[in-house]
Amino acid sequence: MIEVSREGGAAVLCMTRTERGNALSAGLVEALISAVETCIADPAINTLVLTSQGADFCTGFDLSNMQPATSVEETAAIDGALLWRFVRIEHLLATLWHAPLRTVAVVQGRAFGAGADLFAACDVRLATADAQWRFPGAGFGIVLGTRRLGEHVGVDRALAWVTTGASIDAQQAVSQGLVTGVIPAGAWREHLTPLSVDRPTCAALRAAARADLRDADLAALVRSATRAGLSQRIENYRNTLRKKKPEQASAQQ
User: Fold this and answer.
1) Rounded Cα gap, residues 44 and 89, in angstroms
2) Distance CA 251, CA 253 (A)
């Protein structure tokens, strides 16, 4: 699901789930968490780069294996499993946001839903000219990543994007602060300036610049996900997608 390589002080994590547009299955999320935490534990790594194979960076929360519940008990079990998956994604995003090293995301094609949140959780956010972003999770009542997005583009704009499910192209993303640079495909290495500080200094600067709101972010997510009817809200959202673009319904948040 991911390939990990080293290039000097940089660790490159490449998502390889191309058959699903690198949608975030439970397995892919756990692989990313493990790889990110391993990189953070290695003092020789000063930069963590998230990339992907295929046409898309990440098409969001993987909905492909969801089945409608047939009883109250099944509904409770499905909703509980979904809550856990969202909690683990929030853990991944928070770990990146507070990582004591430089984090870089490189997007081509679509970065939708939790995939867009993954991009927004990184320091350096590079994209090709064909990239596009959407933050549709609020369409089924999930609060995930909005505060971090707001730190890049402003609270008002973040709320507008999230509540309307707007599609953002690369030009708009650069002008509003979501993207830090537009690059040719595969050219991210040429756009990374060497770091002039060590890991402890990077960690201290991060702590000084960013309030640690991990508990508040997690609480906001859990409150939104524990509203009754999570799986039904997601199914309603998928039905809306099917009416618009059937091929998107199975693998996008």
Assistant:
1) 26
2) 7
Per the CB < 8 A criterion, the answer to whether 119 and 175 are in contact is: no
Token duo for residue 15: 């998502």
Phi/psi of residue 223, each to 5°? -60, -40
- Residue 94 sits at φ, ψ, to 5 deg, of -65, -35
How many angstroms separate the CA atoms of 192 and 185, rounded?
14
Q: What are the pLDDT tens digits along the chain (253 aa)?
A: 999 999 999 999 999 999 999 999 999 999 999 999 999 999 999 999 999 999 999 999 998 887 777 888 898 999 999 999 999 999 999 999 999 999 999 999 999 999 999 999 999 999 999 999 999 989 899 999 999 999 999 999 999 999 999 999 999 999 999 999 999 999 999 999 999 999 999 999 999 999 999 999 999 999 999 998 899 999 888 888 778 764 444 444 5
- Tell me how far apart the alpha carbons of residues 1 and 15 are, in angstroms, rounded to a whole number: 6
Residues ≥6 apart with Cβ < 8 Å to 36: 13, 48, 92, 95, 96, 99
What's the sign of the alpha-carbon dihedral 234, 238, 239, 240?
Answer: positive
Residue 233 tokens, joined: 């809200």
